[in-house]
Design goal:
EC number: 6.1.1.10
Strand order of the largest sheet: 4-3-2-13-14-8
CATH superfamily of the largest domain: HUPs
Radius of gyration: 26 Å
Pfam family, one: tRNA-synt_1g
Family: Belongs to the class-I aminoacyl-tRNA synthetase family.
Largest sheet: 6 strands, parallel
Bound molecules: zinc ion
Number of domains: 2
InterPro entries: Anticodon_Met, Met-tRNA_synth, Met-tRNA_synth_2, Methionyl/Leucyl_tRNA_Synth, MetRS_core, Rossmann-like_a/b/a_fold, tRNAsynth_Ia_anticodon-bd
Structural class: alpha/beta
Shape: elongated
GO molecular function: ATP binding; methionine-tRNA ligase activity
């Protein structure tokens, strides 16, 4: 073998991330596709962090948001004690994740005792500092959002901008947070730190919005809602559900062995509907507490199902996502969700279209290629082709490798910019290249019309490039990739370990079918 058994890749280093979070999901109904999507992409990012060796200890945090009047009412209409109701719903999220191959390291519940104590301690500090004071609030209140809206934000002067349903006019005693005190600091922060919010256009419009007008004091407690964390100094009030929910990130990080400083290495994955809470309220609370702000907010778009918005009034759209993974497999669902649309755009799930994509890419292009190559290696070459047997790579092999390497670089760069859609597309172009090479070289003609050396070289090149490809695909389709890598004798990825493609012996312990048509 000549010196051409290793090929350098040009890769940029990604920043260190210790924690990736999903929002804690509101426990007033069963999980749906929107929850599944957030969980899946957060899980993919986390797996990628570990794989890229940037931070092998990266942890995934998720949980359930279990307080608020809306939940107490939902429990009542289900004739259940509220605690039992949230126990059931929290459980339905916890049993869903394994069905989607999501592996959280921490699952936080806002009804956890330790979390309640954390929130009360934070409240006391904010109140003692004068950031929170007792006052009155009157205005337009959305029961579904559990928040007041200024008149200018209402749709047609009467409806919630999120729920598009009518708000009620309400006046009550409430604690208020002096949000305006942090407006300048927020503007400065967002102006001097690019890419805190992805995609960047959200950050730009937020800066404009913050500059345009003072911020109203934020109502941060509810009177007459007993299902919540009690305000330490006033038993008539419970803490605003969003303070409760947002600080669950810190409670979970503490449960994982981190502390408030770990937030600077934390990325929050959120849907665009909760951007305001995460880009204004959350950092304002943190600034008030003198805690450094999170590394990044990653904002994703929404899904419709068969063209229909996900809505409780349309049961076809609120089916448990495990039904999709039953039909498409967890890997198939994860792949199709990543492949189908850029993260920040909205997308539409049509099961037949998803199945077509999965069958074309994972079955025909990947699994079948691997199976055919491994069959040749096991049948003709006793399951192993030694690199030392190849005297020199021929022109075609070198050309194939040299075509694939820049695409592998692009895939990794796409992951580092969280562009899963592009990563999946580029993974397919590697598969097209490998399939083209394999078919043109026709190694199955060995011992018929083709010399052994050429067939061995073809199988070795395909095996090595497929190994790296399967590794880069593994955050998206972990089970499929694990099975293929295992069949190869569990070789590590040279591009993640050394930023170099190193050709190794090609091993095939067997030649299983790794994918069934969905
Ligand atoms: Zn609303």
């Amino acid at each position: 073998m000549n010196t051409n058994n290793s090929f350098k890749l040009n890769l940029s280093k990604s920043s260190k991330t210790e924690f990736i979070t999903t929002p804690i999901f509101y426990a007033n109904g069963e999980p749906h596709l929107g929850h599944a999507y957030t969980g899946i992409i957060a899980d993919i990012f986390c797996r990628y962090q570990r794989l890229s060796q940037t931070n092998i200890g990266c942890q995934l945090i998720t949980g359930t948001d279990e307080h608020g009047q809306k939940i107490a009412s939902a429990a009542q209409s289900n004739n259940l004690p509220t605690q039992d109701f949230v126990d059931n719903l929290s459980q339905s999220f916890q049993v869903l994740w394994p069905k989607l191959a999501i592996e959280p390291d921490a699952f936080i519940r806002t009804t956890d005792t330790q979390h309640k104590l954390n929130v009360q301690r934070i409240w006391q500090q904010l109140e003692q500092q004068g950031d929170i004071y007792l006052g009155h609030y009157s205005g337009h209140y959305c029961i579904a959002c559990e928040q007041f809206y200024p008149e200018k934000d209402l749709l047609d002067g009467a409806s919630c901008p999120v729920h598009k349903r009518e708000v009620i006019f309400s006046q009550e005693e409430t604690y208020l947070f002096r949000l305006e005190n942090y407006r300048e600091a927020l503007i400065e922060y967002y102006q001097s730190n690019d890419n805190c919010i992805e995609p960047g256009h959200y950050q730009q419009s937020l800066i404009e919005q913050l500059k345009s007008a003072p911020l109203d004091d934020l109502s941060v407690s509810r009177i007459n809602n007993k299902w919540g964390i009690q305000v330490p100094s006033n038993q008539d009030h419970t803490v605003y559900v969003w303070i409760d929910a947002l600080f669950s990130y810190l409670s979970a990080i503490q449960n994982c062995g981190g502390n408030a400083n770990s937030l600077t290495n934390t990325q929050h994955v959120i849907g665009k509907d909760i951007l305001l809470f995460h880009s204004v309220y959350w950092p304002a609370f943190l600034l008030a507490l003198d805690i450094k702000l999170p590394q990044k907010l990653i904002v994703h778009g929404w899904w419709t199902i068969g063209g229909e918005k996900i809505s409780k009034s349309n049961p076809d759209t609120t089916v448990n996502p495990s039904l999709f993974s039953d039909k498409l497999t967890s890997d198939g669902l994860r792949y199709a969700l990543a492949r189908h649309k850029p993260l920040y755009r909205d997308g539409n799930l049509v099961l037949d279209e998803f199945a077509q994509t999965i069958n074309a890419d994972l079955l025909n292009n990947l699994a079948n290629l691997v199976k055919r190559n491994h069959t040749l290696i096991t049948k003709n070459f006793a399951g192993e082709i030694k690199l030392a047997e190849i005297s020199q790579l021929d022109k075609e092999s070198l050309a194939c490798i040299n075509k694939v390497i820049p695409v592998l670089e692009r895939i990794i760069n796409a992951y580092q910019t969280r562009d899963l859609h592009r990563a999946a597309k580029e993974i397919n172009s590697v598969l097209a290249e490998l399939n083209g090479f394999f078919h043109q070289r026709a190694p199955w003609l060995v011992y018929k019309t083709q010399p052994e050396a050429k067939a061995k070289q073809t199988c070795l090149v395909v095996s090595n490039l497929a190994r790296e490809l399967v590794w880069v695909l593994s955050p998206i389709t972990p089970k499929l990739c694990h099975d293929i890598i295992e069949e190869k004798g569990t070789p590590s990825s040279s591009i993640f370990e050394h930023q170099v493609l190193i050709l190794k012996d090609a091993v095939a312990l067997c030649a299983n079918s790794h994918w069934q048509k969905v």
